[in-house]
Specification:
With 320 residues, the chain is α+β, with helices and mostly antiparallel strands. The chain has helices spanning 15-30, 39-49, 71-74, 89-93, 118-122, 151-158, 196-200, 252-256, 304-307, and strands at residues 57-58, 103-108, 114-117, 128-135, 140-150, 166-171, 191-195, 205-210, 213-214, 224-226, 239-245, 280-283, 295-296. Helix content is 20%, strand content 21%.
């Protein structure tokens, strides 16, 4: 089926055909070979044919010229310790997670604390599709088309006080639904945090989907954070609470081992993990498999133009 044929009626567009076209569109857009103006058309057809699709306009400002990681790898190779420590555990054990009804409480140092259900969150701002690099501290990476809007849109709604310097994110911790909580590898619930300027940066995405679909459960449904210039564990999943604080929050992996997981955790190839180098990465889904050459890791994961100014004057080896 071609990218666009004006003779095709909406009733002729099946969900599978829309999905295949959307994948082709994303790949073409990532390669810079296809006009991005058609993205809204495909989104409208998708939502009309399936409630599991998200209306999202592809934002070319956040589109790297790299091939996106195949959907099957994005949704089957995951770190989500609430469901187990093996990469295959989340897809195997997360499917029983109940994502409706769902609400997030937004509290702390704000003028307008509020609790919002998922439907209200979806309506706060127009949905955008952004293709971001994602780099794991373990030394592998992906390129993923996410669907959401800048977290700053939500933050503006609650009007943080001048004393609010940090934003803390707290994930669901339900032992009935999450078998990984039986492990004491970290102190549950999972907690992460950003400095206020990091949270307000336009790149920081409140995320509801990937590849034009609602978030799969193993990827952090129904809502998560994506912070593309930081290591992946900074992007908290399955959120139930966002809290504004004056002091730097205690984050899960920093509490586990501050020597390995600093609060900032910006992608920095010049600072090795205590047990391995961070200078290069293995791109998941490369057609050459284990024989694929490693990729040189970029400072701030390639987003330095948008974020480096926030760390001017800081020792990024000390504040890792």
């Amino acid at each position: 089926m071609p990218f666009f044929d004006p003779t095709i009626k909406p009733s002729d567009v099946t969900p599978q055909a829309v999905f295949e076209n959307r994948r082709d569109l994303i790949k073409a857009a990532a390669a810079g070979t296809f006009g991005l103006a058609l993205a809204p058309w495909f989104s409208r057809q998708a939502i009309a044919n399936s409630p599991e699709k998200l209306i999202a306009t592809l934002n070319s400002a956040y589109t790297p010229k790299e091939d996106v990681t195949p959907y099957k790898y994005v949704t089957s190779y995951n770190n989500f310790y609430e469901f187990g420590t093996d990469k295959a555990d989340p897809v195997a054990y997360a499917q029983s997670l109940q994502t409706r009804p769902w609400a997030i409480s937004i509290e702390g140092l704000v003028k307008k604390p509020i609790t919002l259900d998922i439907d209200a969150l979806l309506k706060i701002a127009p949905m955008e599709e952004r293709i971001y690099r994602m780099r794991c501290v373990e030394g592998w990476s992906m390129v993923i088309p996410w669907d959401g809007y800048s977290l700053s849109k939500l933050i503006s709604k609650v009007e943080p006080l001048g004393s609010a310097k940090f934003v803390e994110f707290i994930s669901l911790a339900d032992r009935k639904q999450m078998p990984g909580l039986k492990s004491n590898i970290i102190d549950w619930p999972y907690r992460e945090g950003l400095r206020m300027d990091e949270a307000m940066n336009p790149l920081t995405l409140l995320t509801f989907g990937l590849y034009g679909e609602v978030l799969p459960k193993q990827n952090g449904a129904p809502v998560r954070i994506v912070v593309p210039w930081k290591y992946g564990f900074k992007s908290a999943k399955t959120l139930v609470k966002i809290r504004f604080t004056e002091e730097m929050p205690k984050t899960s992996w920093t509490q586990f081992d501050a020597r390995e997981y600093g609060f900032y955790s910006n992608v920095n190839p010049q600072v090795d993990h205590p047990r391995w180098s961070q200078a290069s990465e293995r791109r998941i889904g490369d057609s050459k498999g284990v024989f694929a050459p490693k990729i040189k890791t970029q400072m701030f994961n390639g987003y330095g133009d948008q974020v480096a100014s926030m760390y001017a004057g800081m020792d990024l080896k000390k504040f890792y």
